[in-house]
Amino acid sequence: xxxxxKKIMSLVxxxxxxxxxxxxxxxxxNRGFSFLLLIILAKYIAPAEYGYLSLFAxxxxxxxxxxxxxxxxxxxxxxxxEGKDQLKYAFSTIxxxxxxxxxxLLAIVTIGGNWLxxxxxxxxxxxxxxxxxxxFTALAHVNLDYFRLKEKVRIYGIFSCGNxxxxxIVSIILVKYCLLSWQGRVYAQVGCYALFGFYAIWxxxxxxxxxxxxxxxxxxxxxxxxxxxxxxxxxxxxxGLDRYIINYSHTIADVGLFSFGLNLANVITMIGFGFNQxxxxxxxxxxxxxxxxxxxxxxxxxxxxxxxxxxxxxCTILVALPFYFLVPFFLxxxxxxxxxxxxxxxxxxxxxxxxxxxxFLFFYKKTKMMMYITFASSLIHLVxxxxxxxxxxYLTALVYCISQSCFVFAMMHFSNKTLRQTIGA
Length: 425
Known about the structure:
Elements: H1 2-12, H2 15-41, H3 47-66, H4 74-81, H5 87-120, H6 124-149, H7 153-177, H8 181-206, H9 215-225, H10 228-249, H11 252-288, H12 294-330, H13 337-363, H14 367-388, H15 393-423
């Protein structure tokens, strides 16, 4: 008993573990606010308006991947591999890249004019706003990364959850009370992210972390970041292009209904991500224990797999059934989306299984293999969506399950192969 108490006290007193738990919790709350908002907004806007909001979210998703050329994560690399003194060069280079790409995107929106408006089916002023949201979002994330690197847990939580809460409140005010429909959500985003983005600039400037001497940093940062763009773009290929395929094959209202069902399925994904935040720590602890016999590692890993899958199954059922029966009652306009949601709920479960097996490839640094699997499954998804979406949106929902199943089976194969090579599992 005394040994157990000492073990518990040592875990509680472990600063890194404690901070990791808090950072995961804040991330979970942040994502929770975003998903809850998208569900609540459905009460005040029609499916067609929800469709336009989904198209806008798709544009922002793509621009967020390219606005800093995926270089934001280099902050952590610079901090731990190059020393604290190099942090200002990393941030300044990321900031310079962001401003440069912003200028290019603004020029594209200006030159594209009516052609781009017709292609994306969004007003031009909204396309301008999307560019600024992407830039401010990147700066806000870099700011949060800075707090995380400095282990400023409290202020990280205040800014992370504060941004999500402010977005939530302002969006409801502009959509419900100011009657701005889906564009109220757009204005809320740009206002809130601008506030946090400008704060990030002020913070780095006030701490003398902005410099013009970045010529020597541009090439190594781009060499590190550019290969990440295809990997990040897979989410756009799946959930972004689908919305435009649906819009061209059906109606904007269908985009809204399908997107609503997908957002509900993403609740399952979010919970699975939360489960994995704690599960991956245990998996890494087991695999990283050099004194533990391989036979014991195999037993514990099998138990972790079984426990995670059972938890995901229970989560899927507990989320899917209440949504299926309650949404038609509280949001009758979105009742048709429930039939898509039941299929997409299976997709949400499969994403959770992916998180489980990705842990093994992450631990053994098989990230290049992950990129190949991710990109290939995304291309399968795109081809199937182009072929089947014009026929029926039920088939589109099935495409998510099919492509994710291919993804998961490939991940399982290579993860198990890696485990056999390392611990004989």
